[in-house]
Amino acid sequence: MRRRPDASMSLLNDLQAEALEPEYRSTTAPRHQPGRLMVVVLLLAVLLTIAVLQTTTGTSSAAEQRQELLDRVTAARERQSALGDTASELEDEVSQLGARALGDPAERELLLLLDRVSGASAVTGPGIVVTVDDADDATSAQGMVLDGDLSRLVNGLRQAGAEAIAINGRRLSVLTPIRSAGAAITVDYVSLSPPYRVEVIGNPDTLQARFNETTAAAWWHLITQNYGLSMTITRADDDLVLPADPGMTVRHAKQK
């Protein structure tokens, strides 16, 4: 029996024929339906839109809550500051009334002097302003003003002849603590933020020169030169007005 000339090609013919999908080999097989594809695309678009809206709404809600908390914190700090000022005024009034109750003028003058020195009453006078701040690129405690740095500065200023000191409006006394609280520094248990403005009442002609001779000045020179912190000292243009320390209260009293 003679073989067909293409008999040896039957395997290749079968592979070529089977390579086509059934719907393309049959004229009666169903084709893809465009309508179903459009429905799937629309469903995907709807799901993506819902996801975007939910994400946007969630982000907006979080931003609003954060801003609300910041506003509440700001309002609380302003309220605290106002109450502190009121307390200082009342302390001044109490001190004046106590001085008037003394019959001896010398005793009244001594009491007022002790109030001013201790921080129990507001004081006004000439002086200097020292401003210290963190390094511009501070990423660790080495580039930040620490509670110990402020304590050294205050002690050096007292050694130089400071009569009264306040940090960011908070009057210091011998009982005022300067402590760290997380990333903030508290003065008399009130959180302060840099830059720290240290107002010093005293003789402006000698304060800075005498401060430069203290170990505190040497320490601040070291950290400003090596860690990028900043410190500026200027003479106050006008008399400084420092409030009383609201934490100063009468603890003991004795009548002779």
Topology readout:
Layout: H1 10-18, H2 22-25, H3 34-101, H4 105-118, E1 123-125, E2 127-133, H5 147-159, E3 164-167, E4 170-171, E5 178-181, E6 184-187, E7 190-192, E8 196-201, H6 207-211, H7 215-227, E9 230-235, E10 240-242
Antiparallel strand pairs: 1-10, 2-8, 2-9, 3-4, 3-8, 5-6, 6-7
Helix pairs in contact: 3-4, 5-7
**Which spans have pLDDT < 50 for at least 5 consecutive residues?**
none
Averaging pLDDT over every residue, what do you get?
A: 79
What is the CATH third-level topology name of the domain at 123-242? Alpha-Beta Plaits
The CATH architecture of the domain at 123-242 would be 2-Layer Sandwich
Q: N-to-C terminal Cα separation, in Å?
A: 148 Å
Largest sheet properties:
5 strands, antiparallel
Structural class: alpha+beta
Describe the structure.
It is a single chain. With 256 residues, this protein is an alpha+beta fold. It has a domain at 123-242: Protein of unknown function DUF881 (Alpha-Beta Plaits, 2-Layer Sandwich), CATH 3.30.70. The protein has helices at 10-18, 22-25, 34-101, 105-118, 147-159, 207-211, 215-227; strands spanning 123-125, 127-133, 164-167, 170-171, 178-181, 184-187, 190-192, 196-201, 230-235, 240-242. The strands form three sheets. A five-stranded antiparallel beta sheet has the order 4-3-8-2-9, with helices on one face. It has a three-stranded antiparallel beta sheet with strand order 5-6-7, covered by helices on one side. A two-stranded antiparallel sheet has the order 1-10.
